[in-house]
Write a structure and sequence with these properties.
Elements: H1 2-21, H2 26-37, H3 47-51, H4 53-69, H5 74-87, H6 90-107, H7 111-121, H8 126-138, H9 147-172, H10 180-211, H11 216-236, H12 245-259, H13 261-288, H14 292-320, H15 328-337, H16 343-348, H17 351-354, H18 360-389, H19 398-407, E1 415-418, E2 424-437, E3 446-457, E4 469-474, E5 485-488
Antiparallel strand pairs: 1-2, 1-5, 2-3, 3-4
Helix pairs in contact: 1-2, 1-13, 2-13, 4-8, 4-12, 4-13, 5-9, 6-7, 6-14, 7-9, 7-18, 8-9, 8-18, 9-10, 10-11, 10-12, 11-12, 11-13, 12-13, 14-15, 14-18, 15-18
C-alpha cells in the first residue's frame, strides 16, 4: 500500500501540474491518473489500497467540508437560504423525472429501474463542486451575492435528498413494502440531526479552544478527529436513525467561525495546507473506482439519457433562480456548477446490481459513464465561467486574508514573545485598514490593504488593555511578522 500512496502523490501532482499548465482544472488530471492506475486499466494500485479507498476518500471530503464550514457566514446563509433550499431538491426531481421517462424508451429498462437510475444520476458531486467553490471564496469571487455559498449549501443537502429517494425506489423493487412517507420524513430528520450534532460538537470545541491555548495544528487535528467520529455515528446508527453527518461536519466549522473568527481562520489555513494531500487522495481514488470497460457498455443511448437528464436538471436549476438578484450569466454559472457527478455515483452505482435489479449492470454502466462525461466538463465549465461571471467585490476582505497569510500575522488572543528582548505580549485588537500608496501611475493614489495590530505587554496583576500597549501596521512587502516575533502556545 505504501507504493500505491507514493504513486498517488507523484503521478497526481504531475497530472495536476500538467493540466494547470494547459489551463484546465488539475482535478481532471488526477481523475484520469486514477482511472489509468486503477484496477480496471493498468492495475497499479494494491488491493489493500482499494479496500481502504472509501475511508481515505471520506477523510478527504471531511477536510474540504470543514474548510467549507469555516467560510460559511451567517449573513450570507440568510441571504441565500430560500434559494438554497429549492436548489437542494427541485433540480434533482427534474432530472429523476426525465430519466424515468426517457430511459425505458432509449435503454429498454422498466420504469422502476429507470427511477433507480435517475436517483443515482440526480446527485451533484461535492468532491468536484466544493473545492472549486472554496477556491472562489478564498479569492473573494462571487462574494457580493454569495453565489459560491449558495452552491455549497444547496449541493450538500442535494445528496441527502437524492440518496433517500434512491433508497425508496430500491425498496420498492421486487414488491417489497416501503413506507414512502416514513422514508421521505427521513430527509428533514437526517438534516436536522446532522446539523444538531454539528452544533453541539462545534460549540464544545470552541469552548475547549478558548480555554486552552493550543497550537493550531493540534486544534485542527482534534476537529478532524471529531468530524470522523460524526461520520462513524452516521454509519453506526444507519437503519435506525438517519444522520447527515457531512452536514454536521460543515456545521462544526460554521459554529467555530461564528464564535471565534480568529480561531476559525487559523484552522482554515492549516486545512488549506492539508488539502494539498487530501485532494490527491480524493480525486485519484475516485478515478480508481471508475470501471471504464463497464462505462463503455452504456454506449450512445446511455450517454443520451445522461444528457437529457442534465438538460432537464438545468431547467429546474434555472427556475429555482428566478426572482433572485442573480443576472442571466450568474444563473448560467449556477446551472453549470450543478452538472458534475462523481462521488455518489461511484459510491452507490453498483448497489442495484447487488440487489438483483434486472437492469443493474446497465445502471452501473450509465452511472460510471456519467462520471466520465460530467466531472471534466463540469469542472472546466465552472472554472471558465466563474472567472468571467463572478464579481470581484469592492475592496474584497480576501485581500486581507492573503496579506495575513503571506506575512504570517497572529490573530487576536494569541500570545507573542519578542525576539529582541524576550518580553511577552498578547494581541488584543486587530483592524483591517486601507492605506493610500502614491506610487501608482502618474503619482495617482492606489488603495493598499494593511492590518493594524494592537499588542499588550503581559504583566502580573494588570488586565489586558491596561499598562503598556503598542500598535503595529503591516503592509504588502513588509518582512514576515515572525522575523521579530514568535507566536507561543501552551501545547
Amino acid at each position: 500500500m505504501d507504493l500505491s500512496i507514493a504513486l498517488i502523490i507523484l503521478l497526481g501532482l504531475g497530472a495536476d501540474y500538467l493540466f494547470k499548465k494547459i489551463k484546465l482544472p488539475g482535478l481532471i488530471g488526477m481523475l484520469i491518473i486514477g482511472i489509468l492506475a486503477g484496477p480496471y486499466v493498468l492495475n497499479l494500485m494494491s488491493p489493500d489500497m482499494m479496500k481502504v479507498s472509501g475511508d481515505f476518500r471520506k477523510m478527504a471530503l471531511i477536510v474540504i467540508l470543514l474548510r467549507a464550514g469555516f467560510e460559511l457566514r451567517r449573513d450570507t446563509l440568510h441571504r441565500v437560504g430560500r434559494t438554497a433550499l429549492l436548489l437542494s431538491a427541485v433540480p434533482a426531481l427534474f432530472e429523476i423525472a426525465a430519466v424515468t421517462w426517457f430511459a425505458p424508451r432509449l435503454l429498454g429498462m422498466g420504469y422502476l429501474d429507470a427511477a433507480i437510475l435517475g436517483a443515482i444520476l440526480g446527485a451533484v458531486s461535492p468532491a468536484v463542486v466544493v473545492p472549486l467553490m472554496i477556491d472562489f471564496m478564498d479569492r473573494g469571487r462571487g462574494a457580493k451575492k454569495g453565489i459560491p455559498t449558495l452552491i455549497l449549501a444547496a449541493s450538500s443537502v442535494d445528496d441527502v435528498f437524492v440518496i433517500v429517494l434512491f433508497s425508496i425506489f430500491l425498496g420498492m423493487y421486487g414488491g417489497g413494502e416501503v413506507n414512502v412517507w416514513a422514508k421521505l420524513a427521513e430527509i428533514p430528520v437526517s438534516i436536522t440531526l446532522g446539523i444538531l450534532i454539528g452544533l453541539v460538537s462545534g460549540y464544545l470545541l470552541y469552548r475547549l479552544f478558548e480555554k486552552y491555548d493550543w497550537r493550531p495544528p493540534k486544534r485542527t487535528l482534534i476537529v478532524i478527529g471529531v468530524s470522523i467520529i460524526l461520520t462513524w455515528i452516521e454509519k453506526k446508527f444507519e437503519g435506525m436513525v438517519p444522520v447527515a453527518s457531512l452536514l454536521g461536519v460543515m456545521t462544526i466549522g460554521f459554529i467555530i467561525l461564528e464564535k471565534s473568527e480568529p480561531i476559525a481562520h487559523i484552522m482554515s489555513q492549516k486545512l488549506k495546507k492539508l488539502w494539498v494531500f487530501a485532494e490527491l487522495l480524493l480525486f485519484v481514488l475516485v478515478g480508481a473506482q471508475v470501471n471504464i470497460h463497464v462505462a463503455m457498455d452504456a454506449g450512445l443511448m446511455g450517454s443520451l439519457v445522461i444528457l437529457i437528464g442534465l438538460f432537464f436538471r438545468s431547467i429546474g436549476t434555472y427556475l429555482c433562480l428566478m426572482g433572485t438578484s442573480l443576472n442571466h450569466m450568474e444563473r448560467i454559472f449556477t446551472v453549470v456548477a450543478y452538472i458534475p457527478k462523481a462521488t455518489v455515483q461511484a459510491a452507490i452505482g453498483a448497489i442495484p446490481m447487488a440487489y438483483g435489479v434486472a437492469s443493474g449492470d446497465l445502471i452501473l454502466a450509465v452511472a460510471v459513464m456519467s462520471i466520465l462525461l460530467t466531472a471534466p466538463i463540469g469542472a472546466i465549465g465552472i472554472m471558465f465561467l466563474g472567472e468571467r461571471v463572478l464579481d470581484h467585490g469592492a475592496k474584497s476582505p480576501y485581500k486581507f486574508k492573503e496579506l495575513r497569510q503571506k506575512l504570517q500575522l497572529p490573530r487576536v488572543g494569541e500570545r507573542l514573545r519578542c525576539r529582541k528582548d524576550g518580553s511577552l505580549w498578547k494581541v488584543i485588537e486587530e483592524k483591517e485598514i486601507w492605506l493610500e500608496d502614491h506610487n501608482g501611475e502618474g503619482g495617482k493614489a492606489i488603495p493598499v490593504p494593511a492590518i493594524e495590530l494592537r499588542l499588550w505587554r503581559e504583566e502580573k496583576g494588570i488586565e489586558p488593555g491596561k499598562g503598556q500597549t503598542t500598535y503595529r501596521i503591516y503592509r504588502p512587502g513588509d518582512p514576515p511578522f515572525t522575523a521579530e516575533w514568535e507566536i507561543i502556545y501552551d501545547w
